[in-house]
């Protein structure tokens, strides 16, 4: 016998947009983007697939909402004005975006395939553009810098997650690349193989980010 304060046994939790989103993210982490279907999500929620369309008209709408949820709080990484110079604040934003996408299996694939205009995504963009405008960059320069930083970060993370697939301790392409280079006549690639096949993706990311920031300094001058 149940009490008024306890849930009725066998009754599924009430469907809501928030619960649907969280369950979708859980399934993404568990099985990856390719296995995430509306039917599988509905089964996990204990509802008919048609019930999901109350909140998301299409799967693309669901993915866009998932991408928006992933980047919650990323905009705050810039910190207040005066908390480091502009390059430090931009770097923090880029690192926070990468960290947010890495927090979910195939996170970069989900984000790259959507064009969210939600407050989390726009907040990140506004923070980065604002940091640069405050530093004296023109509006056009700040906007293009946003694209450059975001595209580099998402693209890098996309490749990072593709290389480090769940269940593989080493990047799946590293061994193939090593064999192909060593089997041919590529002396320069052979010399650079330790870096080319390195699993230190943070080092790769930081190197590229430093190049971007150095380039922006040249534009600022």
TrEMBL record:
Residues 37-56 bind DNA. It comes from the Bacteria. Residues 14-74 form the HTH tetR-type domain. Coiled coil: none annotated. One of its GO terms (molecular function) is DNA-binding transcription factor activity. GO terms for biological process: negative regulation of DNA-templated transcription; response to antibiotic. Keywords: DNA-binding, Repressor, Transcription, Transcription regulation. PROSITE patterns: HTH_TETR_1 (PS01081), HTH_TETR_2 (PS50977). This is Transcriptional regulator.
